[in-house]
Amino acid sequence: MADKTQAGDRTEANEAQIAVHWKEEQYFQPSKAFIDQANMRDPNIRTRFGEDNFPDCFKDYADMLTWSTPYDKVLDTNNPPFWKWFTGGKLNASYNCIDRHLAQYRNKAAFIFVAEPEEDPPVVLTYQELYIRVNEMAALLRDFCGLKAGDRVTLHLPMTPDLPITMLACARLGVIHSQVFGGFSGHSCGSRIEDSGSRILISTDAYWRSGKLIDHKVNADIAVQTAEEMGQHVDKVLIWQRYPGKYSSPTPMVKGRDFFVNDVLKQYAGKYVEPVPMDSEAPLFLMYSSGTTGKPKGCQHRTGGYLAYVAGTSRYIEDIHPTDTYWCMADIGWITGHSYIVYGPLLLAATSVIYEGTPTYPDVRRPWRIAERLGVNIFHTSPTAVRALRRLGPDEPSKCNYQFKHMTTVGEPIEPSAWRWYYDEVGKGQAVIVDTWWQTENGGFLCSTVPALDAMKPGSAGPALPGIYPIIYDDDGEEVAKGSGRAGNMCIRNPWPGIMQTIWGNDQRFVDTYYKRYCKNPQSKDWRDWPYMSGDGAMQAEDGYFRILGRIDDVINVSGHRLGTKEIESACLTVPEVAEAAVVPVVDEIKGRVPDVYVALSPGDYKAEEVAARVIQACDDAIGKIARPRHVYVVPDMPKTRSGKIMRRVLGAISNGADVGDVTTLANASVVEDIRVVVRDQNAGGKPQG
Ligand code: PRX
Fold first, then answer.
1. How many helices (H) and strands (E) does the chain have?
2. pLDDT band at 581 (very low <50, low <70, confident <90, very high)
3. Mean pLDDT for the stretch of residues 72-82
4. Amino acid 689: pLDDT
5. So what's the pLDDT on residue 11?
6. SS3 at position 217
7. Read out DSSP for 308-366?
8. Is 625 helix (H, G, I), strand (E, B) or coil?
9. Which atom of ligand 1 approaches the CA of 440 most closely?
10. pLDDT at position 382 over 90
């Protein structure tokens, strides 16, 4: 929805078009010390996982799991592109993450929880303790909530161990968890409750963020109300307490609907719940992600293939050993956290750190103090965090006595200068770095160096992972050759075990979004005819390394988090004075990209400043603070084609200080100059005019 009356052209300002290009960099080699201890040292790995051995190569990953019934077929391609992995097999995710480790690792730390208030000491959850808590919670979900395999449950939890305990308790029963990022608004949560058909919401009273104990219960009430308005009734709201036994929210509990988890759990003390053997293809969880239309997509991930893929990639790419202390600073509410804070590390019996708060609280040295105190040796974060930590405290890492062997970057392109700081200062010149490219839809990494085998090249995500065969297509479906210096649409030719099964409740949208564009023959049952389209622009260098330029669609990647421009525009249009809204990505020094909003108002006498404030509030309410625009420009009119389409390309160019190109074909070319003046005045410190 570009405006309140007509659809606009949506493909005119995208991230790949405003990508910053950097020159080819020198290679960096992994140290001998790293190589000597690495999980994957076989130089033939890519041949072993090559097309001649596909799909059986992925047995290697499936063998990292414990199956209660062995699978009989690796890949079933009977109904493209709805691939089936490890069919006939049965397994339970919770059993694989916990029970099977007890004999050897019972009292080893599974999670170490670091609260934001620094005076609170770290809390260790051993595998034994996790086992007890997950069983009790599973009993509660089954007997108090009446949940059974295949039901969906929405979680809206912040970064405390209550979140993985709840996820694993669901998985123990075969209940499909759908965790909504804790920073999303109650409204966002409500629409995901409705889409998934959850009748139970699991939330919390409060959590710490930047020194404040934030009221989160209020979001549960908004979520339930939103879901009800959309036609989905919620029977029960379970509220964890940040401080068990104490209620930390000013928002009242609703009698008969809301229950404190810590109270109810007492009835289930010491209960054991038999892990339910799930079909390999049974959905494990939903993870909503933004797309081209306003409605977020419920990416549905399967049990067997997903777990196999995160186990394999955690072992070979993250180089996780059971003896490692691994800290991924992402939020479990994103796919990175599901795959590489919870499932991957636990499948390998590692120790995974959960940090509640802001990395720079109370000061920028905090992450490095945590690393020193816990003896973290594998570190995983986003370029946005790297840039922020560098800007605020370039010398801080050297002041703390930790040593990483391995570091990851994920979520956005990392520019070579930030990469070098990460390598020199955070890694102290000794840690290997993997720049991992993948998406919510993918389950796990798709491009990265294999850390002991491939040289690192700053600014490039590296070659494809073993068993992944990418191809770059141009708009006409022709292959863009490596080393050609040209960019195109990044696609993957083959299925892999981590790929999502479908979009929850919308098979057609799944096919249309990812497969329709480059499908060679819709009747074919041969996977070679069904390349997966990622939605990213990319280039491949002569050496085979991929450089990801950014989204080619209407998605903006803010601090490595995906936001749909259409979702933001819809939020803006809820403000009554706003007649038209257009959102464009803008390059930001820290966050990579941020949204700029342009609005044109309906006739009337309004104060631009007040409307702009309402637009910002509307974005906060509809999506969450993460979607907050950098600027709201109130403009006299939108630049439009003669057929009435908003030219986002022009707005994107103005926001990014770039050349607007040829505007002579616009229906209202003179407005471009007016818009430029609005933008210039506002950026010079002026208030929105109007
Ligand atoms: O544009 C790509 C970018 O993040 C998008 C996926 O976002 P999301 O589904 O939220 O998952 C983020 C974590 C996996 C991609 O379409 N992206 C992700 N990793 C990289 C990246 N861009 C460049 N380099 C990366 N390493």
1. 21, 30
2. very high
3. 98
4. 58
5. 44
6. helix
7. HHHHHHHHHTS---TT-EEEE-S-TTSHHHIIIIIIHHHHTT-EEEEE-S-TTSS-TTH
8. helix
9. 9
10. yes
Cα–ligand 1 centroid distance for 627 (angstroms): 17
Residue nearest to atom 22 of ligand 1 (CA): 412
3 state DSSP class of 214: strand
Q: Which atom of ligand 1 lies nearest, measured to the CA of 534?
A: 16
Distance 294 CA to ligand 1 centre (A): 19
- For 643, the token pair is 């057929």
- Indicate if the pLDDT at residue 251 is higher than 90: yes
For residue 533, the CA-to-ligand 1 centroid distance in Å is 14
Render pLDDT for 212-222 as a digit per residue (tens, 0 to 9): 999 999 999 99
Q: For a pocket test of ligand 1, which of 22, 306, 340, 437 has the largest count of ligand atoms closer than 8 A to its C-beta?
A: 437
**Is the distance from CB of 626 to CB of 180 less than 8 angstroms?**
no
Question: Which tens digit of pLDDT belongs to each residue from 529-575?
Answer: 999 999 999 999 999 999 999 999 889 999 989 999 999 999 999 99
Q: What is the mean pLDDT of the segment spanning 205-233?
A: 98
Specify the ligand 1 atom closest to the Cα of 562: 10
| Cα-to-centroid distance, 283 and ligand 1 (Å) | 23
Ligand 1, atom 21, lies closest to the CA of 412
C-alpha span between 371 and 374 (Å, rounded): 5
* Each residue's pLDDT tens digit, 586-600: 999 999 999 999 999
**Can you tell me the mean pLDDT for 354-363?**
97
pLDDT given for residue 4 in this prediction? 46
Kindly report the average pLDDT of the chain as a whole number. 95
Kindly write down the DSSP assignment for every residue of 29-93, as one continuous string: PPPHHHHHH-S---TTHHHHTSGGGTTGGGHHHHTTS--SB--SEEEE-SSTTS-EEEET-EE-H
Yes or no: say if 196 and 231 are a contact pair by the CB < 8 Å rule. Answer: no
Q: Which of 425, 383, 388 is nearest to 404 (CA)?
A: 425
Specify the pLDDT at position 22.
86
With 60 as the cut, is the pLDDT of residue 262 above it? yes
Residue 446: phi and psi, rounded to 5, are -115, -40
Residue nearest to atom 18 of ligand 1 (CA): 411
Output the CA 558–ligand 1 centroid distance in Å. Answer: 10
Q: Which residues line ligand 1 (CB under 6 A)?
A: 289, 335-336, 410-413, 435-440, 461, 534-536, 548, 550-551, 557, 560-562
Which atom from ligand 1 is nearest to the alpha carbon of 289? 9
Residue 98 has pLDDT above 80, yes or no: yes
Task: Specify the residue with its C-alpha closest to ligand 1, atom 4.
Answer: 411
Residue-wise pLDDT tens digits, 632-686: 999 999 999 888 889 999 999 999 999 988 888 889 999 999 999 999 999 887 7
Q: Find the 439 Cα to ligand 1 centroid distance in Å.
A: 5
- CA 150 / ligand 1 centre spacing (Å): 29
Contact by Cβ (8 Å): 423, 28: yes
Backbone dihedral angles phi then psi of residue 256, each to the nearest 5 degrees: 80, -15
Q: Would you say 483 and 542 are in contact if contact means Cβ atoms under 8 Å apart?
A: yes
Q: Whose CA is nearest to atom 12 of ligand 1?
A: 411
142 close to 171: Cβ distance less than 8 angstroms: no
- The alpha carbon of 659 and the centre of ligand 1 are apart by a number of angstroms equal to 27
**pLDDT score recorded for residue 688:** 72
CA of 272: how far to CAs of 91, 100, 133, 430, 678, in Å? 18, 15, 10, 45, 64
